[in-house]
## 1
Amino acid sequence: MQRQRSSPTRTDPVNGSESSTRGDLLLRALTAAGAVGVGGLLVGSLAGPAASAPSPAQDVRILNYFLLLEYLQQGLYEEARAAGGLNGELNRFAAVAARQEREHVASLRSALGGDARSKPEFQFGEAIENERRFGAAAVTLEEAAAAAYIGQAANLTTKRIPMIARMVPVEARHAAWIRGIVGREPAPHAADPAREPHEVEQTIERTGFVKRR
Amino acid sequence: MSNDADSRREAPDELGFTLADIDRDEAIAEGLSIVHGETRARFLGKLAFGSAALVAGLASPSALAASPEQDVSTLNFDLVFEFLQSSFYLGAVRDGTVAAMRPEKERWARVLGAHEVAHVKILKSVLGKKAVAKPFFNFRGVTEDEAAFTRTAVAMEDLTVALLAGQAPKFHDRNLTAAVFSLLTTEARHAAWARRIAGFVPVAKAFDEPKTLTEVDRVVRRTRFIAARPRTRSRRKPELTG
């Protein structure tokens, strides 16, 4: 399931330290079989970094891709805060990041207007009840968002890039902060790798956070 | 690329780290050796890995050959800034300030320094003969004092984020935009890490404020850290067009 396309030695921030639950395994099996997969939910048809000519139609696809990632982060942080199981710096992180992701969601929705996708239903499970699971989930989502932005931001039309360029570093700051809190290196690369949409989609599918319709 | 003698030789030994220690997927070491030694065609073959947008974008055949002069000027400005940062961290290592830090903080300072050294090498490689020479720096005692060093590091990393957030959208070449985004996120991680080490909230706002080249240049001049700007190797001076 886990194919490392970029380099055999690359550490995957998603699976580096997480063990699989039976639920994860089941989801993987289902996804692999294509039974009720969320394939296509995220990305439709997006090309690799800086590979396709920008267009307003492509902007809608890319911005909706970003919007889903922001919905996910906002949802995780808000629900974890509501569940009340977070303490100390982890709780402060969730509070600050929830507010900022909410602003990102609002900006993307405003840029998309009537084309904005609606917020899916989420099921965060243990990630909002257990501090260790929350930390791991937050690292996964923040890393996915940062890498997704790096991979697609340059494919936007010229007028859309400045707003995104102000959001990208905030996602990276979140990633560094949560990594520091959970005891992982905040800046593991001299230059952050991009991830292609299908890789990000696989990451999201593996979390099982998006409810199937 | 474990057999790559060139990239090993160029590792920042002064910091006590090699690029391989820092860059776990070896994308930078690989990129450097490729930029230095291999043919473009071979490089493009490796581009399919897409492991580091920075190296990929900066070293792609279209990156500089077809770039307008303004892209080159902007990259040169970024290079001066990376020179400033790498010299700053190296200075603190040389002054013994870094070795005296608590272990967690020492690691932070060394990792950031190594990353900035890597950024200098990459930008220099890409700019080739168009690269500006390294200015002379005078940090006026800041690298000798842990508290002053830390405060300045926070300000410098935040300023780099503002610089790159402002510049990334302005490159004419989209490959450069994509590449600079992967540099921007690294600098943003540095800034967040520095702020956390210094006891500040790592992420102050939902949107980072971009700064123009002119604004950043004004801040840098105020520090008087750049003691002398050597003549540029290219005939044209870098333009400060925000």
Note: Confidence is low (pLDDT under 50) at residues 1-56 of chain B.
## 2
Amino acid sequence: MSQIDFSKPRLQSFNGIFLIFFTDLAKRIRQNIYILALPFLKNNVFKDYGVYIYLGLALLVILQFVFSYLSYKKFRFSIQENAFHLDHGVIKLSHVEIPFERIQNINLQQNILQQVFNVVGFEIETAGEGTAEIKIKALDKEFASALKSKLIEEKEKLISDENESTADNDSNYTSTSVSESQSDSLLFQLDFKTLIKVGVSSNLFRGVGLLLAFFAYLYNFIMDFISQIYDVNLEEDFKNRIPETVTFISFLILAIIIIGFLITVMTTVFKYFDLKIFKNQQNYEVEYGLFKRINKVIKKAKTQIFEIRANPVKNIFKIKSVYVSQASSHQLTEKQKIGLVGLSNENINLLFSSLFQMDYKALNYDIVQSQNRLFFRYFYRSLFFILLLSTAAYFLYLNWISISALSLIFLILIYISILKVKKSNIGLNQDLISIRKGSIDTKFKIVEIYKLQSVKLSRNIFQRYNGHADLVVETASGSITVEYLKLEQARELLNYLIFKIESINKDWI
Amino acid sequence: MDFENLDIKLKDLPDFKTVELNSIQKRYKKLLWLNTAALFVILYALPVVGFFINGIPRWISICVIGLVSVIFIFRVIELEKGFPIKKFGIRQYDMIYQSGFFHYTETVVPYNRIQHVEIKQGPLSRLFSLYSLRLYTAGASSGDLIIDGLDKSTAQKLKAKVLDKTTEVDVTD
């Protein structure tokens, strides 16, 4: 592996030219999608100027190819003197240098285009500061993994040197200097049956949302198109007919839910296809995806929040999902959490005990429940939402159907609020805090106390008068709020957490 | 509360509420007023200009003025009532800051979680010779602690205190 000379600047894999070209082209098309609508504005544009349009398009594509080729040629990277160097840019040249010690994660991934050209994407993540993150679009598979192990090796050498020189025998690093040659062991592999279960138990509203957005887009597009050609106002015609039958509407809703459900199952299957978890010394590597293969590393020291999600359907299938949040310089979005789906209780125990060195089953928490007054917060929110909807309904479509639909939504919202209040609590023991949230689903977050950054009590003007407080704990991957605790309880919790943070003599990362 | 799984009794722990808190400089309130005034002059100017443009109906301008006035009243209450609340406290291992009338928050940041410290001064605060102290923790900016309206010596003392956690600092002036 190590016979490749990384010190001389190299280009990406040759196929990279085409990959870059196609990705750039796709980006251009996406940016200028509205131009597609132009021909519909005038009927005989193509008849009059067809040749010019095609010529112009061809010219643009050629220009794009030249540009992509240049950007391929100018993109050079190498390893020199304890740092990864990268030169890129066609018009504005820039040089990026990442010292090995700043490298946090190296991710390899393959989207569908990269699979076609048989190359992999290479990503170097750094801690904090944000700007220095490197993405190489196209590398040969062997070369990428060689580069990855080379970088990891260099980084570890640096760390072990440091440890020797400072005589700092921090237990975190002693085992990382073990040679890289140690093979990764497969911990968990998601079989297809479980994957389908995961898809079935996913929140189907996401799929419905996607579907509705798609329909709205399609509807607009088709309506524009047809009314341009036939010069009729279909929309009016359509609108007049819909209210005729309630059955039609309910049928439509049912269809949307079913298709939304299918879409959810499908997207989940595509996303988490062949999920594998490897144990790689101290860390875990996660790999998943059908069209876009994603490879992520879970680092023990960087792990901040361990989140277990379940819902009634998942409980029937006896599966759970785990989302791991790693330290970052900003609030983590849902997408940035590393999702491990379809895990059984045993899998979770194994993962938890190796990440935290604690037996998950043996943990006991002292639970502090959110106060019932929290219900009013959710109630007022739903009330506001319903009032907004009612105003809209009043102006657009007021009859017994919309009124009963609104009342139904209101009842559902109230029921969800009650569930939310019941589920909301915080538990603590000597080392961990656990925060439970959710309505129909349950989200159970576990954080090690010594990894907390700061703690807040937050009270709005109403809470100040009725003696309640929200407890906010800040971690290096975002903040977590526990709503409506009794003031004195919240205060005691804060004292305890702060005392723990200050007395545990452990580095948080 | 009775907790069985903890190794210490909660009642024995030092309570952050017992710490004596220090107020920030009084003249910072003037600066806040100046800021608010400047902002609302602009906000009021917009609908007033709207009166003289023919295309915009009168009721829109009136509504905007009403809305701005409501926000203004809340802002003034927050400023007047909230200013005495803005206080910071120093303990051996952490710093405490409280602020806000409508939304009262008390933040405790342990010194050993602070990534770096910064003393800042904007153009307006230079007029009043005021400084703001920023304590950055890792992670999202919501975890950072910002204390505005300090005089130079306090800001520097606090900074020194944070950097060298052992020194005792006296900030009574």
Note: The beta strands of chain B are 22-23, 87-90, 94-99, 103-110, 114-120, 131-137, 145-150.
